Amino acid sequence: MRRPFVYSRVEGIRSPTGVECEGWLISVGGTPREIMSHSPEFTYRRLLDAAAMAKRLGAQIMGLGAFTKVVGDAGVTVARRAPLPITTGNSYSASGALWAAHDALLRLGLTPPPQGRERVKFKAMVVGATGAIGAACSRLLVRAAEEVTLVSPETAKLLALKESILQETPDAKVVLSAQADTHIAAMDMIVTATSAAGKRVLDIMKVKPGCVITDVARPLDLQPEDVAKRPDVLVIESGEIQLPGEVKMKNIGLPKGVAYACLAETIVLALEGRFENFTVGRAIEWKKVREIYQLGLKHGMKLAAISGVNGVFTDEDFARVRELALAARGREAAPAAAPTRPTGRRKVPAGNGAKPRAGVVKAGTTAVPVRPRRKAVSRAASAT
Q1: Is the peptide bond before 85 cis (omega within 30 degrees of 0)?
Q2: φ and ψ at 104, to 5 degrees?
Q3: Distance from C-alpha of 376 to C-alpha of 281, rounded to nearest angstrom
Q4: Which of 221, 238, 312, 366 could form a disulfide with 216 if both were Cys (CB 3.0 to 4.6 A apart)?
């Protein structure tokens, strides 16, 4: 593995409030597989080297990108030992994932539209529910969906999560499962947020036609060859964020001016002047998920075009998935043709049955330091 190095400078970010910020993308120099082959302490040292580099460059806060934020204690140790504030970006990742999934669900038009403040009549599943992003998504989804299934092999953590959710949202309907495939055929929305690093987490062939799957995991939980098997299912790669202003930075595998939500969280905090350890550890507070979403809107952040393993989804793509899903549902609901018999018996109805994206240079190895920049007199005051 290489030592940390600056991959790109980031300039041109400008909030509607008039505040600007600049920063750097720093690679810690390894793939997720390389990172996992070492102890957490090894990765901590790499991230602390990156933090020291960021501090020297003048950054006032640093974000942990992609896979670096799930190693060890998810930023707690790094935040305690770093010379500047740290955030994992997981609050905005959770917000962006549900933002994109909700938008995609509405655009497909296969579920009843929301009526006032009532829960929307759809069933959702979170795979990897006991992880940091998964738990935050679960806490938010129970407020919107009529039923949410939480999936994790960690039984004790799953029970504790359910108890905590019901304390916050007593009327929530929560189902627990050790495996996704047990309940997957009934789901309208699935969020995958595991740290499986390429291991199979669900059988896409069992998914309901027209289901929206949001893959928040990095590396991705669903491989392109699996996604290709189900053209009647919409698989999106979480919610990327369109940054405000005329953004200049090197290619990170996304359209111009678009950033991963974890990176965008660091930028939002810099624009707001919130130089603090905002999201660290695995217990993400849903209040912070809501707060970062609202701060993002304040500073001009927008949900970017929804993307999948083959790029941005067009209106035609949504229409095609909807058409294929309706056709598949029709076939499942139609009675199976029975052999013709001279007795004239009635027919018996049948039963109802990317390449992985890189963070910066190499997948999952991004540290993102950012400092704010204001015009005229304010600029010098914020350059430390």
Answers
A1: no
A2: -65, -40
A3: 37
A4: 238
Structure tokens at 189: 């929305």
CATH class of 96-239+306-332: alpha beta
Boundaries of every domain in the chain: 5-91+245-304+357-382, 96-239+306-332
> 134: closest CA among 220, 217, 193?
193
Residue 380 has pLDDT above 50, yes or no: no
* The pLDDT of residue 223: 86
Helix (H, G, I), strand (E, B) or coil at 151: strand
CA distance 384 to 340: 83
Note the pLDDT tens digit of each residue in 16-60: 999 999 999 999 877 777 777 888 888 899 999 999 999 999 999
Q: Are 31 and 55 in contact (CB under 8 A)?
A: no
Sign of torsion, CA 69 74 78 83?
positive
In order of 63, 128, 186, 382, the CA distances from 221 in angstroms are: 23, 10, 20, 40
Residue pair 303/102 in contact (Cβ under 8 Å)? The answer is: no
pTM of the model: 0.73
Q: What is the mean pLDDT of the chain?
A: 84
